[in-house]
Structures are given as structure tokens and as C-alpha cells.
Design goal:
about 280 residues; alpha/beta; four-stranded parallel beta sheet; four-stranded mixed beta sheet; globular
Length: about 280
């Protein structure tokens, strides 16, 4: 019989209760300060990164090949015969490439590696639905198909109060970021089919950006029952305000909220709020 493990990285932003309930295996990404390295969400929390941003902007790094092999060995030792490994977008991180190299050489289990083309709860929701499919008794192939279906369905949009950190990390063009800061232009940032950030639209000012975010949600979720995540980067008050308005707009099946992971904090800085959602479906 198949015993299927669901594996992802710590950028998925899934709540610990969900990770525990579905026995999702998490590979921690790394936050690096000078010569000190911390495992994402295990040895460092989001607020600790915010508290230090004014004095030092850390770097992020991939887990080592040895850490990945150790995780896979542990899964095999638990009796798993198959693993579905779902990673942060290859367009935003080298994690997928490294995992691809390791998984190709690992012969003790049948492994399917999937590039989510997303991150945060865009990745998290894909993992969540795959884990639910596995728990319901879906086969390995059926569960992999759920991931591909979810990649087409899940939508992610976010806004941030400063483009400084996206510019510093090369995640957004320097000219665009500089002009945006000068003119108070707030892009609604999304992820394209290649898993790369792009400006979905642009508005002037933070208040209008929040309003536009809700308009996009209303338009994209109209007539659908959806699962929604309202995520924040060091701004829970803004997130709570957004949650209240989202509840008024959409037909919501499940609603999740929380802070984005430390490795994502490094690249976005403080003052992020975002919406991730998808319409409910049956395979």
C-alpha cells in the first residue's frame, strides 16, 4: 500500500495546527545574520526580524543538501513509500532547483517534486489541499493532480508600505521601486504564471491600495465559495481590519490568518497585508 508524505518548505506560512493535523513535513529555510544562521520559524520568529531590520537586514539561504537528505531519510524510516514535495516558486528562490537535484538522486521512495509557482499561503493552500486529499485516501497520482489543479486556482495579492526591501533583494526593479517611493505609488503585487512578482495594478496611497485589494477580491471571488488567507507582515491591526471587510464581501468556507515567515519578512520588510484565496472544488 502507498503511504504518502506531504513535504514543503517553511515559506508556506501554514498554521502549526494544520501542519500537525495533516502531518505535513516542513523543510526550514534559513535566515542569516553575519556568521549566524537560524532555521526559519524554529530558531527565529517574524517579530525578531522586524525588531532588527533598522540595524541589520539579514540574508536568506537554502537548507543544505544534507538537511534535505536527512528529512527524506526520516520520512522513509517512518514507513512512507511516496513523497509529494511542493516548494516555493522557482522564480523567487533557488529552493526548487536544489530540491530537484536531491530528489532525482533519492531512490528509496517515489518522489514527485512540484514547483508551486507561489509562496506564503499561495504555496500553503496548495499543500493544504494535497494533504487533505492524502488523508482522504486519494492515490499518489490523484494527490499530485490536486496540486496541479490548485496551481491554476489559487490567487495571491499583497500590498506593502515600502518598496525598499523588495528593491534591496532584487525582487522588484530599482527604477520602479524608486519612483514608487517618490510618488507614493502603491503597487498591488501578484505572481505571474512563471512564479515571479509583477504589479497587477498601481494606485496612489495606502488607503486606496487597501480599497483596491478588496475590490480585486470581490471581483475574483464573485459567485464562488472560497477559502481565504489574510496574511500580514508586522501589521496585525491592518490585517484584522481587512478580515472584517473580507467577511462582508465573500462567501467564505474557511479563513486563515497569521504572519508571513521570517524568510519572507527579509524581502518585504514591515507593513505588508495580503489576500490569498481559491474557489472550493472537488477532484
Amino acid at each position: 500500500m502507498e503511504k504518502i508524505a506531504v513535504v514543503t518548505d517553511s515559506s508556506c506560512d501554514l498554521d502549526e495546527s494544520v501542519v500537525s493535523e495533516y502531518d505535513i513535513k516542513i523543510l526550514p529555510l534559513l535566515v542569516v545574520y553575519g556568521n549566524k544562521t537560524y532555521k526559519d520559524r524554529i530558531e527565529i520568529k517574524p517579530q525578531e526580524v522586524y525588531d532588527l531590520l533598522e540595524t541589520e537586514i539579514p540574508k536568506t539561504s537554502l537548507p543544505s543538501i544534507g538537511e534535505v537528505k536527512a528529512l527524506l531519510d526520516g520520512i522513509k524510516d517512518e514507513g512512507y513509500t511516496h513523497a509529494i514535495v511542493i516548494s516555493i516558486s522557482s522564480g523567487l528562490s533557488g529552493t526548487y532547483g536544489m530540491l530537484n537535484m536531491v530528489c532525482k538522486e533519492y531512490k528509496a521512495m517515489k518522489i514527485k517534486l512540484i514547483d508551486s509557482k507561489s509562496l506564503s499561503m499561495g504555496l500553503g493552500f496548495i499543500v493544504y489541499e494535497v494533504a487533505k486529499a492524502v488523508k482522504k485516501g486519494k492515490t499518489f497520482e490523484e494527490s499530485c493532480l490536486v496540486a496541479e489543479q490548485m496551481k491554476k486556482r489559487v490567487k495571491l495579492f499583497y500590498i506593502i508600505k515600502t518598496l525598499k526591501y523588495l528593491k534591496a533583494g532584487g525582487r522588484i526593479g530599482k527604477v520602479e521601486a524608486t519612483l514608487g517611493e517618490m510618488l507614493n505609488v502603491k503597487p498591488i503585487i501578484s505572481i505571474d504564471k512563471e512564479g515571479v512578482y509583477y504589479s497587477y495594478t498601481k494606485v496612489l496611497g495606502w488607503h486606496k491600495a487597501k480599497k483596491k485589494l478588496l475590490e480585486i477580491f470581490a471581483q475574483e471571488s464573485e459567485g464562488k465559495k472560497v477559502n481565504v488567507a489574510v496574511m500580514n507582515g508586522g501589521d496585525p491591526e491592518e490585517a484584522n481590519e481587512l478580515i472584517a471587510k473580507v467577511k462582508e464581501i465573500g462567501s467564505i468556507n474557511e479563513l486563515f490568518t497569521g504572519q508571513i515567515s521570517p524568510t519572507l519578512v527579509v524581502h518585504t520588510g514591515p507593513g505588508l497585508v495580503g489576500l490569498t484565496f481559491y474557489d472550493i472544488f472537488e477532484l
